[in-house]
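Support request, please re-run this one:
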Amino acid sequence: MPISLLVLENIMREAGSIALRYFNDLDNIAINRKSSRDLVTDADVAVEAFLKEALTKAYPQYGFWGEESGQSDNQTNRWIVDPIDGTHSFSKGQYFWSISVALEIEQELMAGSVYAPALDDLYIASKGKGAVKNGKAISVSTETSLADSMIATGFACLRSYLVENNLDRFARIAEETTGQRRFGSAAMDLCLVADGQVDAFWEQELNLYDVAAGALIAKEASGTVTDFKGNEGVFPKQILATNGKILDQLLALM
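Re-run finished. Output below.
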């Protein structure tokens, strides 16, 4: 293993403490727009700055790609970071937002962590070693029937005003399932699949920093991660994570 998961956990928890200081003082933080439907807050900038400094200090051999600060020189072996995934939820005082950090080495995800500070849920995984939540091993659900499944999705495509959006796909799948959820953080959605709290999650038009850590956590919890045609891998423009048992049923509706 190229890193210590304990070191990563400590860095994630410290980043969470920084985020919570802003979250508990929302009336006094700046909330700006990167585009008409895409927000950035003081917390996004501060958390990413901390993560860049802490991760680079602990592991100077790796480059850095953060949503807010962009890419460093070394992108062959790099940290992939979303400092606040679910900024809109964060800005409204809702609890479903998270910090996402993944380590990618030569295009292979080797470690990942997603921390939801307002819930104090920390997920972490390393390739081939399984996934844990708050120190306990987790696994995807055992649900075999799409009709009895709870599924989660999101609508990043609408934020970009795309004609090819998720609305028709959502309507088809919602009619065939018992429960539908939209939590607002793709990183968290993937972890909820890993933890068996939802049976599947899909979304389109995301970025790698939204899904890298969560995708590894879902796979290490025995889930599947594919595109909408069933090709294995992390495809942020089309990502479908399932417990494996309802994968074919969902692909038929994609």
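The chain has a mean pLDDT of 93. The first strand starts at residue 31 and ends at 35.
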